[in-house]
Predict the structure.
Amino acid sequence: ELSLCTTPQYTTAAVLEAIGALRQLSSLSLRTVADLACLQLLPVQLQHLTVTFSQEGRVDLSHLANLTQLKMHAEARIEPGSVMPAQLQHLTVFFHLDDPVDLLGISNLQQLRCLTINSPVASASQLRSLAAVSQLQELHLHDQPADEYDAAHPAPSLSGLTMLRSLGVVAERSDLVGP
């Protein structure tokens, strides 16, 4: 297991190339990756990855053939069209998602069994759209207090997520779970 905490200018291609040479590495925690293209240098045998992005853009982790657990901390928006490893089973996102439907714009979530969203919960229709992730069994929603709550994003309904076996909702308001 390796944990690397750097400022963006130091998480360079050379650093990630050196990490890529570690053939026994199965777990990696990277802080502040500014150049998303450098992620292609990560070792393919990784099983667990925690990464903080500081650049908006398209993320491609499809080459990480063994990755089953991913925690993404984003200081910028991850664009639709991003590609996750096909066997990804646990995804945790730590950022404000203006539209969780964007997660469905991320390819290769077919095997996703557990999703944790650490951001304000969105509208009912956006949350129900997660039903398209057919293997999803666990959903954890953590509503982080926002300075201003957008009235255009009403309390979500969970009625369309019938495949769930486990649901966790952490909220500071009582109106988050709708009919």
In short: Confidence is low (pLDDT under 50) at residues 144-155, 174-179. The longest strand covers residues 27-33.
